[in-house]
Amino acid sequence: MTTRPSARDRRHLTGLRLAAQGIAEPRAADPVEAVRAMLALQGQDYLGVLWSAGLRTASATEADVEAAHASGALVRSWPLRGTLHLVAAEDLGWMLSLTGERTVRGAAGRHRQLGLDDADFARAAAIARERLGGGGRADRAELLEAFHAGGVGTEGQRGAHLLGNLAHTGLIVLSGRTEYALLDEHVPHPRRLDPDAALDELALRYFTGHGPASVPDLAWWSGLPLTPVRAAVARVRDRLDALEVDGVEYLMRPGLEPLADRVHALPGFDEYLLGYADRAAALPPEHADRIVPGGNGMFLPTLVARGEVVGTWTRDRNRRTVRATPLPFAPLPAATERGFASAMRRYGRFLGSPIEVG
Q1: Which UniProt keywords are given for this protein, alphabetically ordered (predicted)?
Q2: By the 8 A CB rule, do 172 and 163 touch?
Q3: Model confidence at 93: pLDDT above 60
Q4: Per-residue buried b or exposed e for 212-229, using 16+ beta carbons within 10 Å of the residue's own CB
Q5: Is the pLDDT of residue 317 over 90?
Q6: Of the candidates 62, 37, 36, 33, which has an alpha carbon nearest to the alpha carbon of residue 49?
Q7: β-bridge mates for residue 249, sequence order
Q8: Which residues 6+ apart lie within 8 Å of 204 measured at CB?
Q9: Residue 193 β-bridge partners
Q10: pTM of the model
Q11: Fewer CB atoms inside 10 A, N or C side of the chain?
Q12: pLDDT at residue 261 in the model
């Protein structure tokens, strides 16, 4: 069971994280810079990850983030924990070089249950190359139809696992909300790193963008075993600052100062919570079920005040306006209510739509 740090230590940790993640004072000039600074943003909630990128910039809009995605500067794939993430295009290849083969091996048992074998994956890969080659694009349904027409069954979960395998092995990448492209065509100039250099890059950039965080946090976030993670941390340790709380060492970028006074309306799956194995600093354990109702893996948008998650919020978007409703764990002080309204005005500028606060 996780022991929650003292209130003073929690404020210090969360204030440092809000600063490191570019939430408290967004300074990134554009969405690509914001994503690159974080290395990766969890991205299965498409509209949510657009806001995760946008809120870390000085003034980017939703259209700006989508344009960066469509241009190929940002891509989405499954480079960490077999989970969809938004990353800067040049970083995807070396990240998959660390995690892709391990993810494929981990899915082998499920592939056998689904009746998928190497011949199925090879045939699906050939179909994808033919369908997407020369700069082609196809959405999920079109690719699955092509697989089916080519003799590779996609019923049940087979289709999802076929697409996942082609992404994990670096053949295809999401170039839009549902559109796929060939990775080597869509990202013609990837960074190429040898295994140790890639591990070092992963560790340094994780702690720079997410720290203060622990070595177990990095191992969980990356989905990699502790032994190589510890080795990488040892190699980059002299480029990081450290702080100790309750006997746990946290690493972070040098010179970081805490910032935690504003109220923030974060999307579901944001790295502020999802970036750590241990979330006790920001999230009261007794309210964890309110963030992930029923433990179904779906993280709700969070309302954060002074670094602590104090509730969730919902949005109802139609053609003309967006209605946002806070759902606090307890009645909010007037200052926090005003802070939520201010956060929603900023969100409205991001969407290009007026916000009504309910």
Answers
A1: DNA-binding
A2: yes
A3: yes
A4: bbbbebbbbbbbbeeebb
A5: no
A6: 62
A7: 244
A8: 236, 239, 240
A9: none
A10: 0.95
A11: N
A12: 81
How many other C-beta atoms are found inside a 10 Å radius of the C-beta of residue 286? 8
What mean pLDDT comes out for the span 28-39?
Answer: 98
**Residue 9 is which amino acid?**
D
Helix ranges restricted to H, 30-88: 31-38, 46-54, 62-71
Q: Which residues contact 212 (CB under 8 A, 6 or more apart)?
A: 13, 16, 17, 20, 243, 250, 251, 252, 256
Count of residues making up the chain: 358
Give φ, ψ of 213 to 5 degrees.
-145, 160
Residue 346 gets the label, from left (phi > 0), alpha (psi -120 to 50) or beta, of alpha
Sheet containing 74-80: order of strands: 41-42, 83-88, 74-80, 172-174, 179-182, 138-139
Residue 2 is predicted with a pLDDT of 58
Which helix (H) or strand (E) segment holds residue 202: the answer is helix 195-210
**Among candidate residues 81, 100, 103, 98, the one with its CA nearest the CA of residue 196:** 98
CA 50 to chain centre: 10
Mean pLDDT of all residues belonging to the chain: 95
